[in-house]
Amino acid sequence: MNNTDRYPLLCGTDTSGGVSNKILKKLVEAGKKKNKPYGDDDFTELAKIEFKNIFKNKNLEIIPMISGTASNAFALSLMTKKNDCVICHKEAHILTSECGAPQFFNPGIKLIAISSSDGKLNANLIKSCLENNVDKNIVGVSVSQLSENGTNYSIESLKNIGDICKKYNLFFHMDGARFSNALCSLNVKPAEMTWKLGLDCLTIGATKNGAFAAEAIIFFH
Q1: What is the pLDDT at residue 148?
Q2: Three-state SS for 145?
Q3: Residue partners of 111: CB distance under 8 A and separation at least 6
Q4: Are 85 and 136 in contact (CB under 8 A)?
């Protein structure tokens, strides 16, 4: 019996999986204890410490969230003002699948979509977009890692995007919907794929990997 016989390949959404037994056990344990509310509890504090250790950076601002959609939209709203524009791919979830959530948190935000054959942005595409939209107040770039069609941004391509963001004074946001998958594929450390190459903000989730409504916004700058 091969692995496909024992574990059939499911091609639906990766959010349809269950919660891991270890996490369920901890949820029950946490639910039996009295603790401070609104993110001041012991578990949230431990999670923040762990994030800082994993990313090798003590100067992080971490906002726990329960939804990837809310994480992306809220993060973008914190980095934009009314009538600001953000560049993204035409297949990006913030544009196609998150039901106007970015506009809910910031009614004035505008998303400028770029098309490409591999589902990814690159520095040249972003530069051309900036040159063709000089009449718009473009303030940031958002990428998805992995991209919506499963392609992986290399460290070099992310660094090039980070460099052009720095050159044009744009914030650099990453929708880390499948961040851990990208880390394993590239065989790199979290710091190498984030703040060390110029990333300003990461929305990262664990719900797709066996957690229960566990997401976070991480600001590096």
Answers
A1: 87
A2: coil
A3: 85, 86, 87, 88, 92, 94, 95, 102
A4: yes
172 neighbors 200 (Cβ within 8 angstroms): yes
Closest C-alpha to 87, from 145, 153, 140 = 140
Alpha helices (runs of H) in 20-154, residue ranges in sequence order:
21-31, 42-54, 68-78, 93-96, 101-105, 123-132
Based on the number of CB atoms within 10 Å of its own CB, is 122 exposed (0-12), middle (13-18) or buried (19 or more)?
middle
- The predicted-structure confidence for 29-68, as pLDDT tens digits, reads as follows 888 989 998 888 998 999 999 999 999 999 999 999 988 9
Taking 70 as the pLDDT cut, the residues of the chain under it are 1-7, 9-15
Q: For residues 157 and 153, what is the distance between their CA atoms, to the nearest angstrom?
A: 6
Q: What pTM value is reported for the model?
A: 0.90
Nearest to 215 by CA among 49, 37, 72: 72
Cβ atoms of 219 and 210 within 8 Å: the answer is no
